[in-house]
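Bug report

Summary: structure tokens for Monooxygenase differ between web form and batch submission.
Environment: batch mode, default settings.
Steps: 1) Submit the sequence below via batch. 2) Compare with the web form result.

Sequence submitted:
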Amino acid sequence: MAADKAIHDYDVVIVGAGISGINFAYRIQEQCPNLSYCILEGRHEIGGTWSLFKYPGIRSDSDLYTFGFSWRPWEEQSSIADGSRIINYMKESAAMYGIDKKIDYNHYVDHANYSSTSKKWSIDVTANGNEQKKYRCKFFLLCTGYYDYHEPLKSPIPGIENFKGTVAHPQFWDTEMDYDNKNVVIVGSGATAITLLPNLTPRANHVTILQRSPSYVLSQPKEDKLEKLIRACTWWSKPLEHKLIRWKWLLVPFLVSQFSYKFPLRARKIVSDVIQKQLPPSVSRDPHFNPSYNPFEQRVCFCPDGDFYQALREGKGSIETGVVDTVTADTIKLVNGKELHPDIIVTATGLKLRFAGGISVSVDGENYNFADKFIWKGQMLEDLPNAAFVVGYVDASWTLGADATAQLICRMMNQMRKENVVEVIPRRTEEEKKYMTEEPLLKLQSTYVKKGKSALPKAGNSGQWRARSFYYKDIMMAWFGDIKTGTEWNKMLV
């Protein structure tokens, strides 16, 4: 009995105090008030991605009206926000509902084992770097994101080890780094590169994006005309204003992405024309802004109020499309014969995918390999009892997917209590195991997704094993849909 006193017992343990973990905690308090819970956070503060990344200009690449919580509206008159404002919003939201009192910081989860005898999870934690702790719970929630916090993606750049200047990676940015009046080359073409260029140009001498292949970059006003109209017409009711603006951001991006999927060539033409109008005469759309794929086949990059294009027009920023031949002590030589002469190279080449934060998981002592398993409804894992994970969308805010998961799992836990069920396990039928075709969890063709595919579980092509589709469908499923097909519901044997 003395040993049991050292075990921290809860109904639910959430891993991760980022946007997903905070949202899950709120939904548990709201919909399952009878359940006890805690959040284990490996870092020193709330925030997840927004606590880790410190590079200049770090900001949301989704609108805050849907990236923010539905239960605590984003009140600023700007759809895009920088990292510090997002962290403050998350901290204020957590404090408002007492969620911050449920977080154990600097608690890194090493291993979690499910016992089919006790129907509970046993979780081994390293606290504050050296203290070993044990937690126990009935339901285990992984809100750990999808990438490795400790190691960035290492994309091969021939000869990079020869470079005598500074090499920086956005994931571990040195906030003391001096780039005043320096020539900076950013290797990469994703959202991070698009963010960095206009935020480095005010101090740097010149900033160049070097991309192997181009991306779509669209300007997004911090406040558009429709939002201004909604605010003018709802001056008498802040709640109505918040609701209408949120629904605008739910509906418009959905319609745009669906149009792009159904009419890809037409969407490509429209987007290309929009980009062309923003480019200075010195920058050609082809090849620099003429991707080989159609809009939304990979994630579209957005820049607030066109700051990226403004930097190009001012001449402080530029873009090169080509393949690196080699890097020397002070030069990047391209296969096409061009040379760049940077003082600083920023390797914005993507993230290293990592599922469940690298936690080692087992069932009855036997190792559980995530990559071998299929997902159930995009939120539970095949053969893994009483556990859920959060993954968002590639064409909408991450938080929307997180909230759909939270509401479905809360509904499931309430139903378990009503039916005296102690264990829910997703299972494929023998027929599904025989005929189901594998599909990717993240429907993106980005290099970092392709490289990290082996680290992620799989989606199927049928039934409850399909990947996420879109928010409206998923939230309806969470509220009213079937939560039993494809799962075993087991009661405690007396």
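Above is the batch result. After comparison, the two runs are identical; trailing whitespace caused the diff. The mean pLDDT is 93. The first helix runs from residue 19 to 31.
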